[in-house]
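Incident log, structure service

09:12 report received: a user says their structure output differs between two submissions of the same chain.
09:20 pulled the input from the user's history:
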Amino acid sequence: MRPILTSCACFVLCPGLALAQAAGDNLDKLSHFKTTGTTEFTTVEQTGAFADGIRKNLENINLPEGFHIGLYAVVPDARHMAVGPQGIVTFVGTRKTEVWAVTDRNKDRVADEVKNFAPSLA
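09:34 re-ran on a clean worker, output below:
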């Protein structure tokens, strides 16, 4: 059974005219599917003690028969989700200015990679 996810629009406010202009240029490039030249991304580790602790806590949740719960991704300050059309990338917004791209390339319902989305716009 696949969960039903809702989508939301995420907006980033950039202080200062220079930052706004750079973000505008990068937004224009992104809207035309061109690279912004950004190669530095922040990635979030999906293994280790923190993820293991979450998995252990999930074991204590009692669910009705036929239901299953598991860790899909560790995403800081996650608040909103929007799933891409092929189901490979999920965009996760926060209450802050960050948007994270969660990638499940092999579609095993466990994230392969979590990294910040469009960092040149922040």
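09:41 both user submissions now match this output. Likely a transient worker issue. Closing.
09:42 reviewer note: The longest helix spans residues 17-31. The CA atoms of residues 46 and 52 lie 9 Å apart.
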